[in-house]
Design a protein that fits this description.
Elements lengths: L6 E5 L5 H10 L5 E5 L11 H15 L6 E4 L2 H12 L6 E3 L1 H11 L4 E6 L1 H6 L1 H9 L4 E6 L3 H6 L6 H15 L5 E4 L8 H8 L4 E4 H15 L13 E4 L3 H12 L5 E3 L9
Parallel strand pairs: 1-2, 1-3, 2-9, 3-4, 5-6, 5-7, 7-8, 9-10
The structure holds ligand I24 and D-glutamic acid.
The site of ligand I24 has 19 residues, from helix 1, helix 7 and helix 11.
Length: about 270
Amino acid sequence: MPSSQAIAILDSGVGGLTVAKEVMRQLPQEQIIYFGDTARTPYGPRSANEIVKFTMEIVDYLLQFQPKLLVIACNTATAVAIDHIRAMVSIPVIGVITPGARAAIKSTRNGIIGVIGTAGTIRSEAYDQALKRISPSIQVYSKACPSFVPLVERGVFYGEETDLAVSEALAGLKETPIDCLILGCTHYPFLSESIHSFMGPDVTLISSADETAREISTVLYHRGQLAESQELPIHRFFCSGDPVMFQRIAQMWLNEHITVTPVVWQVPRFI
Ligand code: I24
Ligand code: DGL
């Protein structure tokens, strides 16, 4: 049965808007409910325990909207929390790691794949596991790039400072025989030009956002749950931090007017 229920997308902040934008492009009939945890961003440097707790809180909040599907658009949250979330809900849960891993395996010619991401993502080894689950003989080289997210959030996508940060972070990977590099973080595609020019034309860059949107289509199609209404859906955005800042970034990125609802976590009070 076609379903007018929404697709819920969560992220540590604004980076998951790249996934939301691609879903809006590929599936314009689908209503999106997006939650960005901008009060507690970034997740990359945090402990696994903390990330699992935050992600569970957000999912708990999103379930009130009765979504048909849940998307974890944050690589770090996917890496450490997706199994916990799957155990918590009865709807399909899609993360950004498996779609990215699949695309890399399709694209590699020599079977040697590089992965970059936040400290939390790389420490979890979630990409190594996903890649080897699909293709056990794959060889993986990983590197955390903690300097990249702050760079992107300052809007420094090009230039000397960017190229220097990229060359410092990726010098080791450049010495390996990888022919394909997974950009395992929502923010890294903004640095594609610099990364591509440093790694050289023989290394294919893989971003997860497009692949994840395709996975969402596939899952909804097979479940007979694609939306069919002729009316364009009204998306809803929630964030835990400053809604004005969130709205500014989201509208610039999505090229459309959006409404943002701030969410204040209930703090325990002792009287
Ligand atoms: N891009 C990102 N994060 C920011 C930013 C940006 N400011 C400008 N641009 N700020 O991520 C993060 C700081 N937080 C603090 C808490 O509230 C929310 C913001 C990049 C992903 C964006 C999809 C540059 C910029 C922009 C619009 C679109 C894209 C972009 F302003 F990179
Ligand atoms: N969204 C995060 C990710 O994809 C990057 C930002 C953060 O560290 O929270 O890993």
